[in-house]
Amino acid sequence: MKKYILEACVDSVESAIAALKGGANRLELCSSLIIGGTTPSIGLFRQVKELCNVPIHVLIRPRYGDFHYTEKEQQVMIADVEIFQKEGASGVVIGVLNPDGSLNEQFMREVKKRAKGMSITLHRAFDVCANPLETMEKAIELGIDTILTSGQRNHCLEGMNLITDLVKKAANRIDIMIGGGVNASVIKELYPITHATSYHMSGKSIKPSGMTYRKEGISMGVASLDEYSIWQTEEENIKAAKEILEQYVI
């Protein structure tokens, strides 16, 4: 039996369905993927859970920006962990750092306590931590299941050396999931070197809005973003990645 994880990061029902059709065997559900993802709504989670019979891991991230959170923000995050646990999420994707770039172990212990059987992924807060190998060992001690990483670079191919080192030193004590620019060709290049069997991708394409009337000169947020472009997972992109994994991972 072939064993791999192909996780699609999705922020809409349409993307979740496309990812499932393409062969993703796990979903990370978020909102606002265009800014790196934030915590999704309960309504979105419920619809995706109803329509997609694969494990759903929910991103817990209260805002855009760094991963050092105030006490109030942390309280919101813990509340969200409890809510999604009760809603039936398979896992949470989460991470908090201290000002010095170390992992906030106290917070992660609280997450472990409240998760009550859910899988826990330390997300790409890991990619901006001060000491990745030390942080990995702390994550293992805390009972975290997965680290999502691009190897502390913007693109996983640039972080290949660190990823390879992490996979080797993890020695199956924690799953190292590769993210950050993953697609079929990237998996084909990375797998023979890193031997990582878990990959995280959005498989997105940019589609035009259905709006025919478009008001010029008005922005609802970041002015550089096009209000009339929709990011959405493409079934074929996920399918192509799955085909590569089926060839390589035995």
Automatic annotation (TrEMBL):
The organism's place on the tree of life at top rank: Bacteria
InterPro entries, A to Z: CutC-like, CutC-like_dom_sf
Gene3D superfamilies reported in the protein's UniProt record: Copper homeostasis (CutC) domain
Main localization category: cytoplasm
This protein's UniProt keywords: Cytoplasm
Compartments where located: Cytoplasm
Protein family per UniProt: Belongs to the CutC family.
Protein name from the UniProt record: PF03932 family protein CutC
Lineage: Bacteria, Bacillati, Bacillota, Clostridia, Lachnospirales
Primary gene name: cutC
